[in-house]
């Protein structure tokens, strides 16, 4: 059983989500505005958040940014709901650290399938890697959501951090761009594989000398070298 927080101002949709999650034996909590939603996210300790973008008080993208920039909540998976079809909203949400998105109107069956997949993936992450990964001059602290090179903190976005952490946790393994999109950005994400290249380029610029750990294999993908 998971604890699912629903942040949605349309009561019909929130009610339908709550009903279906309870049928799946999940515990639920609902907020109808952004400010209350953020408070619940910080105090309710949800296993997953269903987050609408268009909300009174505080929009969903700002809530996502605050959750993913807080070490205490950054590990909570987020699925964004939006009535907008513009690609920019989806990309911004994913860039801020959201795990998936779904556009209204949506299939409840599809949403439940995505929730199940993300919860399963989240459980595996909790079992897996240590809180701090150290590689000579590079240190990745998952609990503090912090990366440092030679003891100096490096300012990364949520997605840059997730990408670096994923590569480091799977050091010496080669990953294609499609595999990285699936594992870091989430399933069913309709964005181009060049997004991975852009994030790798930014990571290398920010990591400086420690960027040597990220290797490109032409025509194949990327890997983390120790």
Automatic annotation (TrEMBL):
The modification 4-aspartylphosphate is found at residue 52. Residues 3-119 form the Response regulatory domain. GO terms for cellular component: cytosol; protein-DNA complex. It comes from the Bacteria. Residues 130-226 bind DNA. The keyword Transmembrane helix does not apply. SMART domains: REC (SM00448), Trans_reg_C (SM00862). Keywords: DNA-binding, Phosphoprotein, Transcription, Transcription regulation, Two-component regulatory system. Residues 130-226 form the OmpR/PhoB-type domain. The keyword Phosphoprotein applies. Coiled coil: none annotated. GO terms for biological process: regulation of DNA-templated transcription. PROSITE patterns: OMPR_PHOB, RESPONSE_REGULATORY. The lineage of its organism: Bacteria, Bacillati, Saganbacteria. This is Two-component system OmpR family alkaline phosphatase synthesis response regulator PhoP. One of its GO terms (molecular function) is transcription cis-regulatory region binding. InterPro entries: CheY-like_superfamily (IPR011006), OmpR/PhoB-type_DNA-bd (IPR001867), Sig_transdc_resp-reg_C-effctor (IPR016032), Sig_transdc_resp-reg_receiver (IPR001789), WalR-like (IPR039420), WH-like_DNA-bd_sf (IPR036388).
């Amino acid at each position: 059983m998971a604890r699912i927080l629903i942040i949605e101002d349309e009561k019909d949709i929130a009610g339908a989500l709550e009903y279906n999650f309870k049928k799946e034996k999940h515990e639920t909590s609902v907020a109808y505005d952004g400010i209350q939603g953020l408070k619940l996210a910080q105090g309710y300790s949800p296993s997953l958040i269903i987050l609408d973008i268009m909300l009174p008080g505080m929009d969903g993208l700002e809530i996502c940014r605050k959750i993913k920039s807080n070490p205490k909540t950054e590990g909570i998976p987020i699925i964004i709901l939006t009535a907008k079809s513009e690609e920019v909203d989806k990309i911004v949400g994913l860039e801020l650290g959201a795990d998936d998105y779904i556009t209204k109107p949506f299939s409840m069956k599809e949403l439940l399938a995505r929730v199940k997949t993300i919860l399963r993936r989240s459980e595996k992450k909790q079992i897996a890697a240590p809180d701090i990964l150290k590689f000579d001059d590079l240190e990745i602290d998952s609990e503090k959501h912090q990366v440092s090179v030679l003891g100096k903190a490096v300012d990364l976005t949520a997605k840059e951090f997730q990408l670096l952490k994923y590569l480091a946790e799977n050091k010496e393994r080669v990953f294609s761009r499609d595999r990285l999109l699936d594992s870091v950005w989430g399933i069913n994400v309709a964005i181009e594989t060049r997004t991975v290249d852009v994030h790798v380029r930014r990571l290398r610029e920010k990591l400086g000398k420690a960027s040597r750990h990220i290797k490109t294999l032409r025509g194949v993908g990327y890997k983390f070298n120790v």
